[in-house]
Amino acid sequence: MIVIDGSYHEGGGQIVRTAVALSALMEKDIKIENIRAKRSNPGLSFQHVSAINAVADLCSAKTKGIFTGSKTIEFSPGRHWNAKNIKVNIPTAGSVGLVLQTLIIATSKIDKKIEIEIKGGATFGKWAPPLTYIQTTFTKAISKLGYNININILRHGFYPKGCSLVCLQIQPPKPQKAIFTSFKEKENILGLSIASSNLENKAVASRQTESAKNILQNSNLFGSISIESTYKDSFSTGTGITLWTNNDMFLGTSSIGDIGKKAESVGKEAALEMIEEYKTKACVDKHLCDQLIPFLAIRGGTIQTSQITKHTETNIWVVKKFIDVNFIINKKNKTISTCN
């Protein structure tokens, strides 16, 4: 059994998600202690419980301690995989995207298509990437590693109620190594600005779009800039914007609305972060880098990122407990390569 200290380094929920996914994938029993011990609300959240139970259902795992607030869990994957549709319920506004990422890692060796339905949770939630970022940046990046993922958002969910509805199709992947080092001057920027339908009369999504577009254009860094504005029915009032690079680069940024926060500020945040990321001449943004670490270990390749964060270092530490891989880290050039 692999014993993992959940308080190591960054000490967040990422340790739990990565460890459980790799436990299922590599068929190795694990015990995680001190889960999120450094957080103000330590232990598992509803989002983590939902992700663990979904992976357990997928691989017929035996589990212990899977409840909200639990600081220690055990996960023993079965040898029989359920090639069936998986249904996941998130009773809060927890991140749909982070649950999906856990499942995608775990299914890296499937030989049949799997369909997953998620009810509940947020597509735009706090302290997590919007699902639109997962759609436009994360899945585009892992497609270079041979993954074929289709995400269909049937209903958006915002904090605090969530209540989203999302369907996911995962096709059997085709293993391939990838090099994430491309950079293009005057790259085109795409974007999606979303607000709940009750904010349409205040043109919130459109104001977010115009704010982001003006800042990006005034920077003189980019080529064409195309940001769509749309309004969606939802159970909670909410808003968010996601920006991403086109072609063979994987920079994505986002911002979400909040009470008292102007629409113009939401657009401004995402635009300024994109400018900051782009100026580093990186191929992969700092958030995507840590998300790609498990896939890089499985497939092999090189990443050039804008910043090697604590999240990235923590994920490398977790991954090495499951996979015999040598990560070559060049902090000066901000590159991470594998030597399998």
What is the overall silhouette?
globular
CATH topology of the largest domain: UDP-n-acetylglucosamine1-carboxyvinyl-transferase, Chain
Low-confidence parts = none
What does the main sheet amount to? 4 strands, mixed
Distance between the termini: 23 Å
Question: For the record, what CATH class of the largest domain applies?
Answer: Alpha Beta
Task: Output mean pLDDT.
Answer: 94
User: Got a strand count?
Assistant: 16
| Binned strand content | 25-35%
Name the helicity range. Answer: 25-40%
Strand arrangement, major sheet: 1-2-4-3
CATH architecture grouping of the largest domain: Alpha-beta prism
- Please provide the ordered H/E string of secondary-structure elements: EHEHEEEHEHEEEEHEEEHHEHEE
Q: How much is the radius of gyration in Å?
A: 19 Å
Content-based structural category: alpha/beta
Describe this structure in words.
This protein folds into two domains: 2-180 and 284-339, RNA 3'-terminal phosphate cyclase domain (UDP-n-acetylglucosamine1-carboxyvinyl-transferase, Chain), CATH 3.65.10.20; 189-278, Dihydrodipicolinate Reductase, domain 2, CATH 3.30.360.20. With 340 residues, it is α/β, with parallel strands linked by helices. The strands form four sheets. It has a four-stranded mixed β-sheet with strand order 1-2-4-3, covered by helices on one side. Strands 5-6-8-7 form a four-stranded mixed β-sheet. The protein has a four-stranded mixed β-sheet with strand order 9-14-16-15, covered by helices on one side. The mean pLDDT is 94. α5 (204-218) links the parallel β10 (189-196) and β11. α1 packs parallel to α3, α4 runs parallel beside α7 (286-299) and α7 runs parallel beside α8. The protein contains eight helices and 16 strands.
